[in-house]
Design goal:
alpha+beta; four-stranded antiparallel sheet; three-stranded antiparallel sheet
Amino acid sequence: MKKLFGEINLTWKKLIIFAIVVGMYTGLMPLIPYTYETSFRDIAVQFEWWILFGILIIVNSKSPKDSALKCFIFFLISQPLVYLVQVPFNDMGFKLFMYYKYWFMWTILTLPMGYIGYYIKNNNILSVIILSPMLLLLALTGLGYLNSAIENFPHHLLSFIFCFTFIIIIVLNLFNKTKLKLLSFGITILFMIGYIVLRGGLVNSEFEHIRSLSEYKLTDKAIVTSFTGTKNGKVDLIKFEDSYNVKLKGRKGGKYTFTIDDGLGNEYYFEYYFDKNQKTIILNEIK
């Protein structure tokens, strides 16, 4: 395991092959129906594996510049491949790339993150400070998976285990000094305790869900004109190129309705709620 953290001769050839393999695997997972709501599909929507990949690239790079460029190229190849693999099998075709904008922003950020991240190899307090945001993101993601596993066991249980296993593996193999290991674990544990307290418990009854409205011809003047439902409910329109998505927020057990004006005088009426049996968000148009 220690060899992974600094003893790999990470050539550009190896990096590119790695990026292609990871990108194709990630793109294939959403195409397999049996992976729905399982840990095998989580790599396509969450950060934990990508954080691990990024850290492994950083610690096996030869300089800050080498680290920045290799992180950038890895994500520049792997992320578009995720969508390209799905294009032939999805009704949206190449319109799927509208979702790549979000990941492309993260790809750009890998340049400064890879450069600064190289200094986690210094094995000092600064290394802990630089690494901490990634550990906290892993912890936050892991707590989200734990919440899902508790509410719908055993969905996402493996991803929960992965997140906290990654934290342990990264810290133990990256730092040689006991005080740095304890400091890293301490910061992460305190963060999790604070998060759970502020959240009001481990299990969260609230939900947030994004659904495509590509089948509706909404204009730039489209707006949500009305909304009804219990507290913590909210609807936002999010534009992606020539179509819109709708971000739905609410509380499990609640039922919500809203109206969208397409900007041309046409109105569409919708309802949404969390279905306990299907364990998913139901969005219906009310005719």
